[in-house]
Amino acid sequence: MAPPRPATILHADLDAFYASVEQLLDPSLRARPIAVGGGVVLAASYEARAFGVGAGMPGWRARQLCPSLLFVGGHFSDYQRLADEVMAVLDAFTPLVERISIDEAFLDVAGSIHLFGSPTHIAEAIRRRVRAEIGLPVSIGVARTKHLAKVASQVAKPDGLVVVAPQSESEFLAHLPVELMWGVGPVTRARLADAGIHTIGDLAAAPTALLDRLLGKAVGAKLSALATNIDARRIETTRRASSMGAQAALGRRAATAGLVRSTLGYLADRVAGRLRAAGWAGRTLTVRVRFTGLRSVTRSATLPVPISATLTLTELATELAGAALAAHPREHEITLLAVSVGNLVPEPALQLELPLDPGDDRYRPRTARDAARWVVDRSVDAVRARFGHDAVRYATVMFSDVQRVPEAFRELAEHAALKPQS
DNA sequence: TCTGGGGTCCTAGGACCC
DNA sequence: TCTGGGGTCCTAGGACCC
User: Fold this and answer.
1) Which of A60, A125, A155, A318 is the most buried (most CB within 10 A)?
2) Catalytic (active site) residue A414
3) What domains appear along chain A, each with residue ranges and CATH number?
4) What sign for the dihedral angle of Cα A305, A308, A309, A310?
5) Which residues surround strand B, with CB < 7 Å?
6) How many angstroms is C1' of C1 away from CA of A217?
7) Nucleotide at minimal C1' distance from the A188 CA
């Protein structure tokens, strides 16, 4: 038997990130229960979590649980700046850093040991530096695999370090609740609980057939592998996005043609602009309409050629939304519209293909228009790059009233997401 | 009195092709 | 002449993540 791979994977995760930043920027908020957000809690400080307040919770529910809860507005550009500074600290220890969200990353420090000492020493050094230089608490898990490191960092919170030695992995996992695993949310947790499976140890011991039946073949196999500690995933420093989208919550609004059209115009403009900026176009467009009670439907269409022109996306999105609404004639109010483009391909392919349009009459006019519009869009992009986004606007978007969410938050979410890259 | 915006991956059924 | 299996793509829905 070959000796086991040593524990060289780190998972670093900033604690209650948005809330910690607010407490860092405003000392009067320290040691107090605070939440970032308003209608929905984006992040809660540990003092607030003690009352049961958590991310994703409606604001009224959070106030109910914790009457002294203080809501603070978000300083979104500071979140981006400080998180980037933390990532720069990680980069100083190894080039093998995989950032998986704004505030967490995996590292493989196998090649850094001769420079900086053992993985445990490196983790301690990172925590010291982030605390001293940036002022934020970060928890770190150290283990042999990504899954173990991620679970370990959750166990380490708040402001801690947990190292899982290769010989004690099963022991470490056995008594932890299944919901600490990546991929186990409320629905899966409940399904497993119904079958008497509560801990990761229970999951590891469960028969494959049972898990297949409870969760489906793929999910069952994946969780079973992780629970029995089979995880061969490596650090990926270059991941690329496979779709790009935008959405807007509307409150409760009558689904009028005008509202739908102007909102989709706004969303299509955002998505198309980001696609062109990144040099991509996509073949599949998906529109989601959410009704009251969180019921939602989607409609999608796949074209023979990729598109990225604002007006083409707007028109197609409007058609799809019309189909979705027509299928639900009893729903009169909508609460959210979303537009997403998938099947992404690099833009140059689009430009080469256009003159050689396939003889599909259904799409030919649309595609030909898309080419002309793409050229116009590029000049709009150029004007915006120089004079600001509001220098040019599309007529349908001018009347849009979806700017309820601060632009800075949209930008933060956008930057936190993966980027397509060639 | 049921909420934000950005994503990934999986499933199941049907169409279509060889 | 109605029968086989496998693969790929598309669509709609759902669970999950930060």
Assistant:
1) A318
2) no
3) 1-167 (3.30.70.270), 175-227 (1.10.150.20), 243-413 (3.30.1490.100)
4) positive
5) A 39-40, 42, 55-58, 60-61, 216-219, 222, 241-249, 251-252, 270, 274, 292-294, 335-336, 338, 340, 342, 404-405, 409-410, 413-414, 416-418
6) 38
7) C15
